[in-house]
Amino acid sequence: MARMATHLITGAGSGIGAAVARRLHARGDELILLARDAGRAKELAAHYEGARTLVADLADPDRISKSLGMQPMPERLDSLLHIAGIVDLGPIAELRPKTWHQQLNANLVSPAELTRLFLPHLRAVKGQVVFVNSGAGLNAHAEWGAYAASKHGLKALADSLRHEEHGNGVRVTSVYPGRTASPMQAKVHSQEGKEYDASRWIDPESVATTIITAIDLPRDAEINDVTVRPGR
């Protein structure tokens, strides 16, 4: 019998992360879900029967190693799926350091730290790292400066990691979704002062399909970068 794949997912509580977790859980893969605190971990474990949880706060990357060091770690990992993220818009003329730090920590520094900590597990099985980036990781627009900077940095992280880990057999994929119907998108519309209509944007299931295609791709190939845009 083939071994079930094991995936560590950040952001499994809503949006794209929840869609990916549902799909992988439904097909019988093993899930390890990262939660920001014990209460959230309990909620996720109840929702995904049989899933394991790890607690670490992406808002505080300096403490991730210590937090995970006090919890049972997986022996092997087939994929590390970085899907969690935060956004806070505003003109650069008004952005204070706190806003920059919050987005850079959650969207860039914490994914880098998680990747560092789990690389030995991924190398052991020639696994894969998937970074769910954003269209803002390719093009920056007015009032998206801090978020776009964090996502441009995430692209650089992924590109460097891909070159560094190619010899170890670790695949690295960046996915750049356009606006996707999710709680994050509702927040963005609120900050933009616009009415939110989920039917106008990409369904999270469509982005989940893209991510799962990348991790299921036969080992003779690798999806490096894929851009997903609203089709309506």
Name its key features.
seven-stranded parallel beta sheet; 232 residues
Termini gap: 42 Å
Please give the number of β-strands.
7
Question: In DSSP terms, counting alpha (H) and pi (I) runs of 4 or more, how many helices?
Answer: 7
Q: What share of the residues lie within helices?
A: 40-55%
Q: How are strands sequenced across the largest beta sheet?
A: 3-2-1-4-5-6-7
Can you give a write-up of this model?
By secondary structure, this protein is α/β, with parallel strands linked by helices. The protein is about 45% helix and about 15% strand. It has helices at about 15-25, 40-45, 65-70, 95-125, 145-165, 185-190, 205-215, and strands at about 5-10, 30-35, 50-55, 80, 130, 170-175, 225-230. A 7-stranded parallel sheet has the order 3-2-1-4-5-6-7, with helices on both faces. The longest helix is centred in the middle third of the chain and has 29 residues, at about 95-125. The protein is globular and about 50 Å long. The mean pLDDT is about 95.
SSE layout and pairing:
Blueprint: E1 6-10, H1 15-26, E2 30-35, H2 38-47, E3 52-55, H3 64-69, E4 79-82, H4 97-125, E5 128-132, H5 145-165, E6 171-177, H6 183-192, H7 204-216, E7 225-228
Parallel strand pairs: 1-2, 1-4, 2-3, 4-5, 5-6, 6-7
Summary?
By secondary structure, the protein is an alpha/beta fold.
